[in-house]
Design brief:
With 299 residues, the chain is mainly alpha-helical. It folds into 2 domains: 143 residues, no CATH class; 155 residues. Helix content is 74%, strand content 0%. Helix 4 packs across helix 8, helix 6 packs antiparallel against helix 7 and helix 7 packs antiparallel against helix 8. The protein is flat, with a radius of gyration of 20 Å. It is found in: Membrane. Pathway: Porphyrin-containing compound metabolism. One of its GO terms (cellular component) is membrane.
């Protein structure tokens, strides 16, 4: 039974990752209204007409439905056969976040909402993926969340502060997409050919996100340097901080590629999905470090 639970946990994490990526595609392709103002039907049908926008939106809905069924099965088996309280917490939070984002998605179709609320939809998807990833890790060698070395309070503060700040940066990125402000800054690293552009409208929104992303990179770089200096002998802390730096570096690069590809619609959609997927991985590694700091208190 343990192997079945592990497989379902892995499928859940993969499914949540796919939902997050497809949600980013829905936003980038402006397909959120691809099924009109109907839910769960799409233009009055279970199988909609084969337009691009309806196909993207309906595929996203279908994947959410299938993954939700997998989560329910995983939830039952974890509470029935797994004794670890952290596993029960992770699957509970995954299910809760998935249900909330599904409800928000349905409401967004029926009653159009502000960009501030729509951006939160991606944030909830990110949390759902992070919890599902932690659940999957429970059944691996990384799932024994006790670090090999005591962690200083300063490092713990840096980990948690960086993780919370990363969520804010991700929210700003989602807000950029939902306000269709991406074109506010043409070119990278300069914005409209300027180091500091006129901070109005879409340009101000995009430039704020860029500065926030730069500060996030510096925070994770500081996290990595501290881990290398003090915790290189701890495989788990070293693993999490190293991959957090790798993914935030890829995030910066992919953000630049998204800007450069704005003239090509296909490339723009593809790079936007890649950017969202890298963001999810980065946040997942930061959450893993947070769990290590929590369990250090019990060591």
């Amino acid at each position: 039974m343990q192997k079945w639970i592990q497989r379902l946990a892995n499928i859940s994490a993969i499914g949540m990752f796919l939902i997050l990526a497809m949600g980013a595609l829905v936003t980038k392709a402006d397909a959120g209204r691809g099924c009109g103002d109907e839910w769960p039907l799409c233009h009055g049908k279970f199988v909609p007409a084969h337009t691009i926008s309806s196909f993207i939106e309906y595929s996203h809905r279908l994947v959410v439905g299938v993954v939700t069924l997998v989560l329910i099965a995983t939830f039952y088996l974890v509470f029935r056969y797994v004794k670890r309280n952290d596993a029960k917490f992770y699957i509970t939070m995954t299910v809760v976040m998935t249900l909330i984002q599904a409800a928000m998605g349905a409401l967004a179709v029926i009653w159009p909402q502000s960009s501030l609320v729509l951006a939160l939809h991606f944030g909830l998807s990110l949390l759902a993926f992070a919890f599902s990833l932690l659940l999957a890790l429970v059944f691996t060698s990384f799932g024994q969340f006790l670090p090999q070395k005591r962690i200083s309070s300063g490092f713990k503060t840096l980990v948690w502060g960086t993780t919370i700040y990363s969520y804010i940066v991700v929210y700003l990125g989602a807000y950029v997409r939902h306000t269709t402000s991406t074109g506010g800054c043409t070119g990278w690293p300069l914005c409209n050919g300027e180091v500091i552009p006129e901070l109005k409208g879409a340009t101000g929104i995009v430039f704020t996100h860029r500065i926030a992303a730069l500060l996030l990179f510096l925070c994770i770089l500081a996290l990595y340097l501290q881990a290398r200096r003090h915790y290189q002998g701890s495989d788990k802390l070293w693993f999490g901080s190293r991959w957090a730096l790798i993914t935030v570096s890829l995030q910066v690069i992919s953000g630049a590629v998204v800007t450069w590809s704005m003239g090509n619609e296909t490339a723009y959609l593809f790079t936007g999905m890649i950017h969202a997927m890298i963001v999810a991985c980065m946040f997942g590694f930061l959450c893993y470090l947070c769990v290590l700091t929590l369990n250090d208190r019990k060591a």
